Amino acid sequence: VKISDAEIDYLCAAASEYFAVAVRRSDIVWTYSAVRPLYDDGASKAQEATRDYVLKADGGEGVAPLVNAFGGKITTFRRLAESMLEKIEGFLGKRGKPWTHDAPLPGGDFPATGFDAQVARLKSAYPFLDQRLARRLTRLYGTRAQKLLGLAKSNADLGRNFGTDLFEAEVRYLVDNEWAVTAEDVLWRRTKRGLHFSREQAAALEEFMRGLSNRHVAAAE
């Protein structure tokens, strides 16, 4: 799947409506395209198909149910998960009340208007952090940034700097806590630092990731 020229022109024109200087093709540094699975509800056009999810459970009495989720989107995943649990709670023998509606996401346990205050708290705990890095870590990890930084007293304690202040400590945190396996996981799926990395820097990170993976496999054996 790849963005078309017409889509590029449309997005540039739409974005330009909000800026004094028009967004041009030459300003683009990265594009991302994906496919959204839609539930076939009989609509004649994809644009008219429902964006909601549909759950279907299979399995008889005393048999573990197989629940399939069709369609949906990322903005409804929380509710989808609750609906999924409702489908299987009888088999599990547990009936709990939904609780995720007001629960903060991991690391988000501070007021919505308290971002700057949270950055200040992180800077107070780790004075060696420059303001840009403190803001980036807070934006990505919230209160979990302290778990990432651990007992560090200086940038040197964060390990190798792979580029643009992506330190080894952050990479290891992503491997241990966010299921990152490849450099692409780290650079694009977790941090978007790939927007600022050179090919050489990305290759060095990939080599490091392979080494981590090999050590984990050896430890498991």
How does this model look, in words?
There is one protein chain. With 221 residues, this protein is mainly alpha-helical. The chain is built from eight helices and two strands. The chain has three domains: 1-34, no CATH class; 36-103, no CATH class; 115-220, Alpha-glycerophosphate oxidase, cap domain (Helicase, Ruva Protein, domain 3, Orthogonal Bundle), CATH 1.10.8.870. 43% of the residues lie in helices and 5% in strands. It has a two-stranded antiparallel sheet. Helix 3 (115-125) packs across helix 4 (131-141). The protein is globular and about 60 Å long.
Tell me the number of strands.
2
Total domains, how many? 3
Number of helices: 8
CATH class of the largest domain reads Mainly Alpha
Question: How would you summarize what this structure contains?
Answer:
With 221 residues, the chain is mainly α. It has helices spanning 5-16, 77-92, 115-125, 131-141, 145-149, 168-177, 183-190, 199-220; strands spanning 53-58, 66-71.
Provide the descriptors you would attach to this structure in a database record.
221 residues; 3 domains; 43% helix; 2 strands; Helicase, Ruva Protein, domain 3; mainly alpha; two-stranded antiparallel ribbon
SSE inventory with pairings:
Layout: H1 5-16, E1 53-58, E2 66-71, H2 77-92, H3 115-125, H4 131-141, H5 145-149, H6 168-177, H7 183-190, H8 199-220
Antiparallel strand pairs: 1-2
Helix pairs in contact: 3-4
